[in-house]
Amino acid sequence: MAEIPRELELYRATIDNLDAALIHILAERFRCTKQVGLLKAQKALPASDPQREARQVERLKRLANETGLDPVFAEKFLRFIVAEVIHHHEDIADNY
Hints:
By secondary structure, the protein is mainly alpha-helical. The protein contains 3 helices and no strands. It is elongated.
């Protein structure tokens, strides 16, 4: 087995740190969206807000373009997260 170059180890360490940061950020986002779900349940609001979701997709696609991230990937990622949030909101409403 070939020795791993030091430069590769440094890149991997950075990637590991970024992955950990992403997990922490996602956890915080879901803590916040849980509160949104509770408020929506209290106010009998729908779990989904298609107009806001569309605005968010466009906003994040613009941000992706500005930062050099593939906007198609950014949209897929956001839609995945939003679908999970809506599922959580529906569960909260069902159990409220």
